[in-house]
Amino acid sequence: MNTPHVVVVMGVAGTGKTTIGPLLAARLGVPYAEGDDFHPAANIAKMSAGTPLTDEDRWPWLDAIGRWADGRAGLGGVVSCSALKRSYRDRLRAAAPGLVFVHLTGDRSLIADRMSHRQGHFMPTALLDSQFATLQPLAADEAGVEVDVEGGPEQITERATSALAALPEPTAR
Q1: What DSSP state is assigned to residue 146?
Q2: Are 88 and 61 in contact (CB under 8 A)?
Q3: pLDDT at 2 over 50
Q4: What are the φ/ψ torsions at residue 38 (nearest 5 degrees)?
Q5: Are 17 and 9 in contact (CB under 8 A)?
Q6: Which of 31, 67, 127, 139 has the fewest CB atoms inside 10 Å of its own CB, making it the most exposed?
Q7: Looking at residue 104, what is its pLDDT?
Q8: Residue 43 CA, distance from chain mean position
Q9: What is the pLDDT of residues 108-144, one digit of tens each?
Q10: How far is Cα 125 from Cα 59, in angstroms, rounded to an integer?
């Protein structure tokens, strides 16, 4: 790629955004940012208590991710962010036009199993159903690809890299 994409690795909790994001960034030769690090402390506390976030809770988080992504325009980068609703992705694109999304998808039972084996993460498995209920998959007019999370991290990263390579080059702003 001549001008690297800024990629948002999205999906419900437990799809592997935090695992695939850094692997994808390394493969693309660009920096990675962990989306959870952009959450205000109040959001972490709310999710840790098993309470789903509201849209109002998410706006400052999405704005912070959007600022990071905008700062990487023309340079490339990968950031993880659930980006479950179209309105969230629209907000990210408003801050950083030209974003590309890698939507990690998978069977609910596989994702729940993976979540149950995570240690030290603030997102409880109990919130998975609310994540799936909120999820609005990428629409045809959104720049991005869907990547199945079946298999190991290297296989998933390879599928994501291949799918991204097939996308048109991003346009300069």
Answers
A1: E
A2: no
A3: no
A4: -90, -10
A5: yes
A6: 139
A7: 96
A8: 17
A9: 877 877 766 555 544 555 567 878 888 999 999 999 9
A10: 23
CB of 167 within 8 A of CB of 145?
yes
User: For the chain, first and last CA: distance in Å?
Assistant: 16
Mean pLDDT of the chain: 88
Judge contact between 84 and 134, C-beta under 8 A. Answer: yes
Q: What are the DSSP E strand ranges found in 14-166?
A: 32-33, 77-80, 100-105, 144-148
87-96: string of b/e by CB count within 10 Å (b at 16+)? ebbebbbebb
What is the model's pLDDT at position 84?
Answer: 94
**pLDDT tens-digit map of 29-61:** 999 999 989 999 999 898 888 787 889 999 999
The torsion angles phi and psi of 68, rounded to 5 degrees, stand at -60, -45
- Tokens 């402390």 locate to 41
Structure tokens at 139: 């629409």
Sign of CA dihedral 164, 166, 169, 170: negative
